[in-house]
Amino acid sequence: MPWLRHFALFVVFVAALLKPAAAGAFVSAPDAGSQARVGAFELVAATLVRPASAATCGLHEGIGPAYDENASGYRFAAGGGLGRLRSIGPSTWESSGGLVYGPDKVFGNRVQHVLAHTVPDATKPMHSVFNVGRNQVLGLVDEAWSMRGAAVAGDPGAFVVPMGRAVGTAGETAVRIVVRPGTSQIITAYPVVP
Amino acid sequence: MSERRVACPRCGQDWLLRVRLVHLSRDAILCPECDALWQQPKDVGPAGFEDYGTFMIRHGREQPEEKGEIEVEGEFMRGELP
């Protein structure tokens, strides 16, 4: 019965399309305003909420709950494709904006270091906080990196990039990005008053 | 009691630490936020620092973020400034 075989193939095809959503791998983040296309699915600022697979953990240990297996990378995109990470080596990721996030002696990796600036920290003398959610910060930093001008005078590893809008919870309108001088290896990024 | 810890004069976002650069057998002052590194307490200021990773690589330590490269000896205190 050829119609039965066609029907079975159709069912398999539909099941394959629906599998990621049905698996409950993603939920919408409450602070998300961005969308990104992942294969056949539109996910609204998806965040992985279940433990990653063993293979994922081995390769991407320490990054935190934002790995998107469908997109073959980490998802912090704020739109326009910026802020997405791809693994380029052991504990090292490159953002779609060209910043390299390597290991970090305090946070484990530079991604977590930058994401620490999404929450207040009263133990620090000053700790400026981005006014966007975790899943948008790397996109914002990529945006700033793409807009950077000359480095701070006398400090070739520091760039202060006016963003033309508030990017910090205290009304800061610029992003300060610190990289290893002469490279795109990021050390930290946080909002500042220009 | 007045604050004796010293905020990083480069970024202001963290307290300075006294660290031991283990494999180089030397002490230094480090900002864990921006990786600014000073060789001597008297040098601590908005200038005169070097990027930690750059310094380490220049001295033959190719993986400066690896465990065991530095030991934190404590917070850098104001009284240690000249």
Shape of chain A: elongated
Biggest beta sheet attributes of chain A: 3 strands, antiparallel
The ordered string of helix (H) and strand (E) elements of chain B is: EEEEHE
Q: How many domains is the backbone of chain B divided into?
A: 1
What does this structure look like?
Helices cover 24% and strands 26% of the residues of chain A. Chain A is an alpha+beta fold. Chain A has one domain (2-192). In chain A, a hairpin with a 3-residue loop joins strand 10 and strand 11. Chain B has one domain. In chain B, 9% of the residues lie in helices and 26% in strands. Chain B has one helix spanning 52-58, and strands at 17-21, 26-30, 36-38, 50-51, 70-75. Chain B has a five-stranded antiparallel sheet. The radius of gyration of chain B is 12 Å and the shape is globular. The relative contact order of chain B is 0.28. The interface between A and B is medium-sized, with 22 and 24 residues.
